Amino acid sequence: MFSDTWPPDVAARLEKLWRQAREQLKDDPVALQRFEYWNWTFELFIKEARVNWAKAGGNEIQNSEFRIQGPKPLECRRSSF
């Protein structure tokens, strides 16, 4: 379920937005401190999302900004009954 909820494209988009927010807050140390207080586990979350995607059988795909994991294509088989 984790890999379905947080696929690589979603995790990459979240990471991009997180980095943008940190960049926008760099000139305001108090705001940045508050942001980091609420998001202190975010980097670990992104790593966990990628690890779980790989464990779920993802294969590598290339994103324009991040090297991420993607799902393996499903194999179609006809039922014998």
Written account of the structure:
- With 81 residues, the chain is of the alpha+beta class.
- The protein has one domain (2-71).
- Helix content is 56%, strand content 12%.
- It contains four helices and two strands; from the N terminus they run H-H-H-H-E-E.
- The protein has a two-stranded antiparallel ribbon with strand order 1-2.
- A hairpin with a 4-residue loop joins strand 1 (58-62) and strand 2 (67-71).
- Helix 2 packs antiparallel against helix 4 (42-55).
- The two termini are 30 Å apart.
- Residues 61-76 have low confidence and may be disordered.
Q: Topology, please?
A:
Blueprint (H helix, E strand, L loop, with lengths): L1 H4 L2 H17 L4 H10 L3 H14 L2 E5 L4 E5 L10
Antiparallel strand pairs: 1-2
In the predicted model, the low-confidence regions spanning at least 5 consecutive residues are: 61-76
Q: Strand order of the main beta sheet, please?
A: 1-2
Helix content: 55-70%
Order of helices and strands: HHHHEE
* Number of spatially distinct domains: 1
The major sheet is characterized as: 2 strands, antiparallel
Mean pLDDT across all residues, rounded?
A: 77
Structural class of the secondary elements? alpha+beta
Q: Using DSSP, what is the number of strands?
A: 2
